[in-house]
Amino acid sequence: MSTISTEDLIIKAIEARELSYSPYSHFQVGAALEAADGTVYTGCNIENMGFAPTICAERTACAKAVSEGHHEFTRIVVVGSAKGPITAFCSPCGMCREFLCEFCERDFQIILAISPTEYKTYTLDELYPLTEKPVFDTDDPFKGAFGGK
Q1: Which of its termini does the chain have fewer beta carbons within 10 Å around, N or C?
Q2: Which residues are annotated as a binding site?
Q3: Which residues bind Zn(2+) (predicted)?
Q4: Which long-range CB contacts under 8 A does 121-127 form with residues at least 24 apart?
C-alpha cells in the first residue's frame, strides 16, 4: 500500500544521495525503498578503499529495512551521477539486482530518476530476467540448491 507519491519517493532518494561517501569514484548514489506497509528506507553508496567492501545505495536501503523486520517491498527509486547535478539515469548493478531478487517479487518496481518529474519505471523482471530463487530441500538444504543434485 503506497502512502507516498513517486515524486516524494524520488526526492527522498535525491536527499539520500547527498549523504554518499564516495571519496574514490566521486559517483554519488541514493536510493529510497518502499516496504509493503508504506515504510520508506533510504540508503547511499558507501565506498571503501579496498573496493570489494563498498556497499551500494540499494543494498544499504534494503539492509536497513531487513534489519528492522521488513521483507516485502513494492518499489525502489535509484538516482546517481558524479558529484553535482543528476544528468542521466543510473541503474542498479548486477549485485544489487540479485540482492533485490532475494526479497522482491518479479513485478517489483525499479524507478530510475533524474528529477521528481523525469523518471523511468521498470520491473525487476525487466532488469533482471530469467532469474529464479533457489529451491531447497527441507531435509537437506544443500540438495537441489540452485539446481544442484
Answers
A1: C
A2: 56, 93, 96
A3: 56, 93, 96
A4: 124/97, 124/100, 127/91, 127/92, 127/97
**Torsion angle (degrees, nearest 10) of CA 81, 83, 86, 92:** 20
- Written as tens digits, the pLDDT of the chain (149 aa) is 678 999 999 999 999 999 999 999 999 999 999 999 999 999 999 999 988 889 999 999 999 999 999 999 999 999 999 999 999 999 999 999 999 999 999 999 999 999 999 999 999 999 998 876 665 556 665 555 554 44
* Number of structural domains the chain divides into: 1
- Tell me, yes or no, whether 79 lies in a domain: yes
Find the catalytic residue in 58, 68, 118, 132. Answer: 58
Domain at 16, CATH number: 3.40.140.10
* 58: annotated active-site residue: yes
